Amino acid sequence: MLYKPFQDLKLSTLGMGNMRLPTVGERGPIDQEKARAIIEHAYHQGVNYFDTAYRYHGGESEGFVGKVLSQFPRGTWYLASKMPGHMMNYKDGKLGFQGYLAGEEVKSIASIFEEQLEKCGVDYFDFYLLHNLCETSYDFYTNEELGVVRYLLEQKEAGKIRHLGFSAHGRADTIGKFLDHYPDTFEFVQIQLNYLDWELQDAKSKYRLLEGRGIPVIVMEPVRGGSLANLRPDCQQLLEAARPEDSMAAWAFRFLQSLPGVQVVLSGMTTMEQLEENLRLFSQDDPLTDDEKALLQKVVADLADLVPCTVCRYCCEACPQGLDIPKLISMYNEINYNKGLGSLSFTLNAMEEKELPSACLGCGACEKLCPQSIAIPEVLGKFNKALQST
Ligand code: SF4
Ligand code: SF4
What is the DSSP string of 127-161? Predict the structure, then answer.
């Protein structure tokens, strides 16, 4: 197992995500025997970072993972969990759950945190995160009357949190704004990062922002929910021709090994076979060569049929509506690939009418300035149509 220093710790570069543990039936409870075997084997093979959250496996993951790890000496494993603020709201001094948890009672931020410690059977979390900082959870996490961050900093002071961070599905500017709002507060950030989302979700901007600020990156969705482990046959053939011995997952993990700011790559492993393959991949540092990076770029372009915006922003200067054109193009690429909104719904919900593609006048002033000759009004028109049909 490869390790990287994190302050005074040595963290395994492969981390165990605990939201895709094996279950009884398709959506049943955790298959305790199989899941226990996977976690124990990961630990014995040197994995020391274990990530869970309040609602993984319907709330079962935290307690289960804590119980399995408790057989090993505390201090030889690091447990991460998350405050579910993205599923909560705070109105008129009242805290509540929303979404599929709407109606469930919640007393306070403190009661959730204490419940998590108790469920996990620990006195402290090694790593604790605000869950999913994004455009729609931003106001919740920055509400000073509620004081989520203030409360967690108090817990850190009291020794119940060793390292504080957040996970984010928000866009790079939202992450940057949050880091500015709480300077010198967060020690690590967890983002969705893989070679496809490098372009599709503009993960490159998030990574570069964090790397520029010296904040270690914890990676989630390294194989994009498994889709990068099973590519379209023509894309797979391209990669196999270059490295016949390698699996598709190996390409995804080696891409991440090429990014020095990556601290831990979380993989949600459901089978022992996945774990064994990941252990093999993380036993040697084998970053991509420049030629291999170029090949992956071709695969991404083929896979996603991307509008090739380079985010130079020349077009923005000409737009009478002040539209953030590269941001809209990046969102269009994502929707087009996913055939749906996915996590973009967070961003879209927080946008005003005047920021949406429907605000485009079709004047074409932007197009004349685009060095990539992108038919911008046409792309925004298609984006608008896609939004109307969702
Ligand atoms: S076509 Fe739309 S995006 Fe382009 S400059 Fe005109 S209003 Fe702005
Ligand atoms: S000018 Fe073209 S390439 Fe540059 S940001 Fe605008 S759309 Fe993208």
Answer: EEEEEEE-TTTHHHHH-TTT-HHHHHHHHHHTTSE
CA of 316 to the centre of ligand 1 (A): 8
CA–centroid distance, 388 to ligand 1, in Å, is 19
The reported pLDDT for the residue numbered 200 is 82
Q: Coil, strand, or helix at residue 315?
A: helix
Superfamily, domain 3-297 = NADP-dependent oxidoreductase domain (3.20.20.100)
Please give the Cα distance from 79 to 313 (Å, whole number): 41
Q: Where are the domains of the chain?
A: 3-297, 315-388
For the chain, how are helix, strand and coil distributed in percent, rounded to 5? 45, 15, 35
Please report the pLDDT score of residue 339 as a whole number.
77
pLDDT of residue 307: 85
Q: Is the CB of 319 under 6 A from ligand 2?
A: no
Question: CB of 319 closer than 6 A to ligand 1?
Answer: yes
Residues of the chain with pLDDT under 50: none
